[in-house]
Each structure stands twice: as structure tokens, then as C-alpha cells.
Design goal:
With about 100 residues, the chain is of the alpha+beta class. It has helices at about 20-30, 55-65; strands at about 35-40, 45, 50-55, 80-85. The protein is built from 2 helices and 4 strands, in the order αβββαβ.
């Protein structure tokens, strides 16, 4: 279920700022979803509208491990990740 209301083109991409090549490639490979996003494992639907986007489980795990350098076991059981529309996984996503 890729896309929803806004699709992948609405999420910011790495080309807009200077990232190391490996991180830029990681970000470019992600599959953001907007609108109504189904998470079958949780028997849930998130109604994100166009202000947020969702990264499915595989993408979220890659961000946690490859992008943010967490140990692989910390990504076990992750169902996805929600971010604000105008942010990327490498922006200040923790709100500091």
C-alpha cells in the first residue's frame, strides 16, 4: 500500500542537503506512505493525512540500524515509523 493521499513524492529527499553518500542512498531507498496506512500486524489503520508520513517495518528497521546506528536487536518487532512531512530520518526528529 504505497502512496496513499500524497505518495512518496511528498517526503523530503536527501538531495536537498549534504549527507554522506551511504546515508543519502539509504534515504533515497525508503518507501514513505501518506494518507490512510494499514498495519496488518497491529490490525490497525493510521489516518496520517498529509502532515505525516509512515515508513514500513523494513524501512524503519534500516533507519534504526543503518542510519541511526542502533544494535540490530533493538529493531526487532518494529512495525514502522511516523515522521512529520517536512522532516527526514536525518533531521532533528526528536524535537530538540
Amino acid at each position: 500500500m504505497r502512496g496513499g493521499a500524497g505518495g512518496a513524492k511528498d517526503a523530503p529527499k536527501a538531495e536537498a542537503r549534504a549527507l554522506p553518500p551511504a546515508l543519502a542512498a539509504l534515504e533515497k531507498s525508503l518507501h514513505p506512505q501518506t494518507g490512510d496506512v494499514r498495519i496488518p500486524e497491529a490490525k490497525a489503520v493510521m489516518h496520517l493525512g498529509d502532515r505525516y508520513y509512515f515508513l514500513p517495518a523494513a524501512d524503519a528497521k534500516r533507519v534504526l540500524v543503518e542510519g541511526w546506528h542502533n544494535p540490530p536487536e533493538t529493531a526487532d518487532g518494529v512495525l514502522g515509523m511516523v515522521l512529520a512531512k517536512d522532516t527526514t530520518v536525518f533531521d532533528n526528529v526528536w524535537g530538540r
